[in-house]
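For the sake of transparency, this paper describes our internal protein records without simplification. The record that follows is passed on verbatim for readers who wish to inspect the format:
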Amino acid sequence: LNKHKKGIAKMVNIAGFDYDNFDPEGVTYPPNGNYTLAIIGSEDKPSKDGHRMINVHFEIASGVQSKQQFRIGYYVGNPNVEQAKWAFEALGRLYYGVTGQRPTSRGFDLEQLKFKAFEADFDATPNAKGDKFPKIKNLKPLSAANSAQPQQGYAATAATSNYNQAPAQGTPAPSWGAPR
């Protein structure tokens, strides 16, 4: 709150933005580029169509866009078997990119990837219809060997093949809860 005289909240004037072309239901993504990212949580919930969707929540761990969060949905319950396969493969690439290890046929728990930094190219280029389907590509584990300093907002801890990170002291937990 912006305090005014005698503790009364003063209303703030919001101007200088083109609200005529603003989509209140839209999602904002960072600019396309290479980032150090960390998974901060996940959700397993139904899509709009009622099929299984795994939403993975990411946070940019360093640079100008630091602390910006975004979500990518993996439609693993897609009735189109080929598209569901692509979603599972993308999650497998996510696991491999964060840990440097291939997932097994038993699968994995996304909790294993939480707060571990990795590098990736982010791409939210709209398709021919203008829809954005954000993707992360070219994932690489961020090892202690190739990163001398912990990323802003994360504390470094020892790990075998990756840069294991936990939230810095005082960093609030995500409001949408723990991964399943």
Q: What stands out?
A: The first helix runs from residue 81 to 99. The radius of gyration is 19 Å. Residues 144-180 have pLDDT under 50 and may be disordered. DSSP finds one helix and nine strands in the chain.
